[in-house]
Amino acid sequence: MTFYQQRGILPHKRHVQFKKADGTLYREQLMGMKGFDGVQSLLYHHHSPTEFFKSTYEGAFEPAYETQTELRPRAFFTDLAKDKAGDAISGREYILGNDDLLIGVATTNKAMDYFYRNSDGDELLFVHYGSGKIETTFGTIHYHRWDYVKIPIGTIYRVIPEEETKFLVVETMSWITTPKRYRNEYGQYQEHSPFCERDFVGPESLDTHDEKGEFEVLTRKHNQWHKHYFKHHPLDVVGWDGNIYPWKFYILDHEPITGRIHQPPPVHQTFEGHNFVICSFVPRLFDYHPDAIPAPYYHSNIESDEVLYYVDGDFMSRKGIREGAITLHPGGIPHGPHPGKIEQSIGAEATAELAVMIDTFKPLKVLKDAQYMEDEAYQYSWVEEELKD
């Protein structure tokens, strides 16, 4: 997604003198992808963004995965998550991951008293519930229930909840964008796209700070933790323009694509990154062929793992799953509706389910620290009752 936006005050051309009222220069910074060949934004600071007076190394970021177990469907109840005292960064509890991304949750009502910068990849925060604001280099985004918020790689930010907030967190080692098939050769969304440019909301305001003091920025790079300390507020940008910036997208602005017979999961796709896609299952009408079966057919995606995060409503192909659950269906074995759900779906006109799906093209591993959330019986929930004895 590369459409242009701007905020604040800017000089009339790039890379020219841009002076403050006292005659001193604002400091220009280019944030770009793929060297100088990808999308980019220009930011203008009161102070140099390189002007930290102290740096420290804080250790390695090393998710501890369980040893290899049998190939099976798995379910985790994130409402059992223990860490309720941390903020939006320190309170993250990771559940699944691989070399491309980490998936976890964070439930918090604690404002961050420091700033954070993920320099390994983009982050996507899905707001399960709660509200608050995210202050960033590019300005402030106010979030609410069921918003996706994307934070670009290298962006300094902090999260300030206004009420208890639960995030589904997707940390990547790459970028997050929308599917190429939705865009024309100029980058504009086409008429068949389930959303358009109006649905993506950048920072609502650019709140420029010029305070002096001591400000801490926690930085992650190459899965290592570092801290940088500044004597000026890091959110000191007076203006920016370009194609890199944080944005939010309300999940119900994804308009569902329906048909006479069951539509496969790619119609629900909203985002993608390197070796993964993210889909939004939203309330929609069911198929309208007279012999349609609205429930999905059993399928074997041999080369991908499927993760579902259950947000709201009654998910039409599952039973025994509650709000906030995460299921993992690994590639290599089939998966599909629970017993009775196929027959139950026939004749139904609509579903009110709300869920986020993440499909990865490398196997996902389970974090050791997430095992206590697991429903061990989930793998056997497709066995018909009369066979369980």
Automatic annotation (TrEMBL):
Keywords linked to the UniProt accession: Dioxygenase, Iron, Metal-binding, Oxidoreductase
Claim: Iron is one of the keywords in the record: yes
GO cellular component, one term: cytoplasm
GO BP terms in the entry: L-phenylalanine catabolic process; tyrosine metabolic process
Alphabetized GO MF terms: homogentisate 1,2-dioxygenase activity; metal ion binding
Residue intervals of the Homogentisate 1,2-dioxygenase N-terminal domain: 99-249
UniProt cross-references to InterPro entries, sorted A to Z: HgmA_C (IPR046451), HgmA_N (IPR046452), Homogentis_dOase (IPR005708), RmlC-like_jellyroll (IPR014710), RmlC_Cupin_sf (IPR011051)
Database matches in SUPFAM superfamilies: RmlC-like cupins (SSF51182)
Required cofactor(s): Fe cation
TM helices/strands, residue ranges: none
Record carries keyword Metal-binding: yes
Residue sites binding Fe cation per the record: 299, 305, 335
Active site, renumbered: 262
Pfam families: HgmA_C, HgmA_N
Name the record gives this protein: Homogentisate 1,2-dioxygenase
Organism the protein comes from: Staphylococcus delphini
